[in-house]
Structure prediction request, 210 residues.
Amino acid sequence: MGQPESAEHRAARESTLPPGQRLQRGWPVTHYGPVPKFRPERWEFRVFGATADGGKHCWSHEEFTALPFSTVVADLHCVTKFSMLGAEWGGVPARTVLELAPPAPGVTHVMVWAEYGYSANLRLADFASEQAIFATHKDGELLTAEHGFPLRLIVPHLYAWKGPKWVRGVEYMTADRRGFWEERGYHNIGDPWAEQRYSYQEEPGDGPEL
Prediction:
């Protein structure tokens, strides 16, 4: 049996949490709608929109999972106020997708599309961050269907809704527009350290121009 965690150790560990968050043991399942059925023969990952060559880039499931595998150790912060610290995420870095299917010079944002038409918008700089990864694994094991298998985006420095489960593609955009939760009252940027939870907190420039 291990020794009980001291109050000092717990305080030091929890000091890494963004404001308003609580440390979570385990990984709760949170999502909108049903869990989709994975059909590998029909699965396709697409990059489209304002690509550098003007075309659409597609990978089958076999092709996408054959791309160079990488890992990042990063936290996950849910807007429902739980945080999971120090998970190892394995998969394909977002930067790899940007290299294989470059955006046009005028691209400022991306829309990440998932099953059932779910979407999340991101600034290009957030999507291109070193720790943003299209995850297939957590802590060395394949994701479960409930947690996003076969593919979910992890963007550790933003709230977790900015990293959809069951991702199917990325759209390059030359102007921002809101995704699924952003259209329903969530903050357009979603920085947990600034506690950007809701759209009423937005400052000028945080959201798309009307």
